[in-house]
Amino acid sequence: MLFKLSSVITTALAAASLVTTSAVNLERRDTPASCTFVVSPSGTPDPSAELFSEWNYILGRNLANFVPNGSIIRNGNSTVTGPDGTGLYTIAQTISADALTTAEAVAVVTGWVGTTFDGPWSGVTWTFQTVTC
What we know:
By secondary structure, the chain is an alpha+beta fold. The protein is built from three helices and five strands; from the N terminus they run αβαββαββ. The chain has helices spanning 2-20, 51-64, 102-110, and strands at 33-41, 79-81, 89-95, 116-118, 125-132. The N and C termini lie far apart (68 Å). The model is unreliable at 1-26 (pLDDT under 50).
């Protein structure tokens, strides 16, 4: 009986230790990068489309492809201007993901130059002309 009681107590103490031990924090919260994206549409965007919302989605969704599932994307709200005299649009937004350093997030988004993404609400495909952060 004494052996069984000590086993139960040892098991209970081990379980309590596991419960109170904090999990390893794998997130990296660097300062978000302020980035400017110059993009060209494949046509005229739907005038009723909320382009700032579309760009919040496009940038967040595509940055999420570079982090583990469940990672938090902490992009700011997009500011969209355009079209300019050449038909280009400019998007300003902060970029950040808990699983990436600022430098890693910048490397991801600056690698999008020449890439196209479909606009879910505007009805156009957007091509990244330049990205600066």
